[in-house]
Amino acid sequence: MDELICRDCCVKKEATEFRPRRAGGSQKTLQCRACHCLAEKLRREAKRSRQHRQAVNRQLARLKQAKSARQVGTVCEQLIGCFGGLEGFTTAWRACLEADLARGGFAALRHLEAVLRLVKHCEEDRPDYRSMSDEELLDLASKLSQAHGNP
Hints:
- The chain is mainly alpha-helical.
- It has 2 domains: 3-40; 48-126, no CATH class.
- Helix content is 66%, strand content 9%.
- The protein has 5 helices and 4 strands, in the order ββββααααα.
- It is elongated.
- The termini are far apart.
- 11% of the residues are buried.
């Protein structure tokens, strides 16, 4: 049997441990099957990470451009749904933020703009409690406690 040396792990292995260069061909690749599988796994992880980062950045740009509270709410719902819930979204956003901070520049500022837009949305959406009567405040408090499952 022929033996070949893998260019990645530098271990001498049998020719059957190497993939054919072309379907049906007799020439073998320079990489053993184990190293090839590891390289492919890393490539797929990098691609998935890049796609998540691009999706987060696209949504952050939409969030920054939102003109109304309704649009902000819609973008937030899409973000949460896109990443499988709030925890998935925060994990993806954190990873994207860390990568953008490491690179620096305007990409990192996009995150700050999105946070500021969310804060502005929350401030616009909040009622003015000073102008509410006691009855209105009690009614609001009872609605909130019912919404959170408190009697």
